[in-house]
Amino acid sequence: MDTPTGGLVRSHCVGATAVVYASDYLNKLTGEKIERECRRQLSCGCRALVIDFSETKLVNSIGISILLGIIDVAEKCGARIVFSDVNNQTVELFEMLGLTRHVVLAKDEREALLNLSRYETTPVVH
Amino acid sequence: MEPSTQKLIHTFGALADLGQEIAGTGDFSEMVRTSMHLLLGTLALRRGAVMECVEAGPLRCAAIWGLGDHFLSGVEIDATQKTAFLKGETADFLVKNTDTSTGFMNQHRDQLVREGIELVLPMIVRGEVTGLILLGGKASGEEFSRDDFDTIRAMVRHIGVGIHTHRLLEQIAQRAEENRRLYDDLRAIYRDTVRAFAAAIDIKDKYTQGHSERVGKYSEIIAREMGWSEEEVEGIQIAGYLHDIGKLIVDRDIINAPYNIDAKNSSELNRHPSAGYEILAPIRHPYADIPLMAKHHHERLDGRGYPDGLTDEQIPMGAKIVSLADSFDAMTTDRPYRRRRSFEDVVRDLRENSGKQFDSKVVAAFARAILKEVTGETKDRRITKLLGKGYLEGEHVATLLQDLITDLDSTQKARSAS
Q1: Which residue of B has its CA nearest to A61?
Q2: Nearest-CA neighbor of A64 among A95, A108, A105?
Q3: Which of B33-64 are b and which e, b meaning 16 or more Cβ less than 10 Å from the residue's Cβ?
Q4: Which of B1, B46, B135 to mutate to test the interface with A (most CBs of A within 10 A)?
Q5: Is the pLDDT of residue B349 over 60?
Q6: Class of the CATH-defined domain A3-117
Q7: CB distance from A3 to chain B under 8 Å?
């Protein structure tokens, strides 16, 4: 079941993978909510993150910075991260800025989960 | 879209957001944090920090991202290092450049490299280094290009000015707050001085001790009931305290005469409003018209008052209030030649003299204020306390006041209609 957190961010877990949904415009306000949700999921033992951009039309500079922060936190936790359903314009932006060097892009959530299933994602028990 | 066009749009968007953020009036810490995110996000830099120079002491971390909480904790920047930053060229700000003339970089290179910092730029405002912005490498792994440097330097300049402006505004707000406190202190000192004066005036008249203080308080109550502003209410209270200051020049024997004084002495005593005006006029009071209220507090609406024989509209409203407060206190306190009058008698006097000696609106306002205390509509018991226990007791008191208010209101309405 989807869990709305902080009013805007929806998320749900598939095994040890958390799927977090980004909103239509990824800016400071929404970016920070996604970041908090990702941190929460990682601290709850998730070993992989899928950030679903299916509703996202635009990502601004702050959004980029916050996404890099999430990548950083995930890397430090040894968690894998996949961005799914990213529109063409945003893919170009991510490629131009080098984010794609650090994350895998998937066509949709199903492909993202399939990609992650190839790796060991046993939840960490706290 | 061409990558270069996409990059331009992304950078312009960031610059527009940065301008908006810096021009905003929001929280300072949030402004710096957001500005840093905008800078990092423009070039996809993975970490960064904004450090402020403090007059004496280590750099103060204003915002940090992707670095440990204790990053550069306790590190200071000395005058020589600041000068080197002022003179430095772009190449001097690269951490990996071991030929840099920037002493700060040479001193802290190991830690900066360990933390992944690649660039240290000074924030310069009006020829002074106000802080440093430290940036990690690009997520793309590419080297910084010339365009990147131009973008970074433009944004760092913006952030520097933003921080400087916010700090200036903080200082201005702090000064304004200090000034406000000083002003409040001055007003308090002024009020205390005025009360001391009032006590000095009353000491001269052994039968009316506390009179000026009571007139001040009654005047304040009436003005508040009439809807005056807080500032005006404070002013009328002061006028009440000082209304008899002219008595300081009247012979003590005349003031304290235990019987009705003769015409000569009466004329001497009647000089006190004008004398009060002369004493008060040269003083720069924080409230308006205090000297005039003292001068005209013995004027009457029918023109039979003194010193100028003014009539209704010519008498300042403040003087009308002080006049009623003064007479009310005279009627409700013992005098050398008579006991105080009953409340019923006082109300009769107020009714008879409304429109002749007193302004009906002022009398009605005072009656309303007393009635509110009598009926318990207000918890304030100041009038009751000033009049002493028992004076306002009895069921007839509320009726007397209510009837007086009704009569005065209908007279007022009839006058307005005609």
Answers
A1: B41
A2: A95
A3: bbbbbbbbbbbbbbbbbbbbbeeeeebebbbb
A4: B46
A5: yes
A6: alpha beta
A7: no
- Could you give the CA distance from residue B21 to residue B351 in angstroms, rounded to a whole number? 65
Element (H, E) at A29: helix A28-43
Query: Which of B37, B47, B140 to mutate against chain A (most A CBs within 10 Å)?
Result: B37
What's the Cα-to-Cα distance from A17 to each of A84, A111, B263, rounded to whole Å? 13, 13, 105
Two tokens, residue A45: 């033992």
d(CA B75, CA B81): 12
Same domain for B133 and B14? yes
Q: What is the pLDDT of residues B1-59, one digit of tens each?
A: 676 788 888 999 999 989 888 887 678 888 999 999 999 999 999 999 999 988 778 89
Cβ of A28 under 8 Å from any chain B Cβ?
Answer: yes
Give B39's contacts in chain A (Cβ within 8 Å): 61
Residue B234 falls in which region: left (phi positive, over 0), alpha (psi -120 to 50) or beta = alpha
pLDDT value of position B397: 94
Question: Parallel, antiparallel, or unpaired for β B60-65 and B48-52?
Answer: antiparallel
Q: How far is A38 from chain B (nearest CA, A)?
A: 15
Please tell me the predicted confidence (pLDDT) of residue B418: 75
Residue A94 pLDDT level (bands cut at 50, 70, 90): very high
Q: What is the pLDDT of residue B256?
A: 67
Sign, CA dihedral B136-B140-B141-B145, equals: negative
B249 and B149 in a common domain: no
- Domain boundary assignment for chain A: 3-117
Q: Are residues B337 and B272 in the same domain?
A: yes
Coil, strand or helix: which one is A82? Answer: strand
B382/B402 Cα distance (integer angstroms) = 19
pLDDT score, position B205: 72
CA dist B341 and B331 (Å) reads 6
Split into its structural domains, chain B has a count of 2
* Sequence-distant contacts of B372-381: CB under 8 A, at least 24 apart: B374/B398, B374/B401
Query: What residues make up the domain containing B71?
Result: 3-175
B6–chain A Cβ distance below 8 A for any pair: yes
What's the confidence (pLDDT) of residue A122? 54
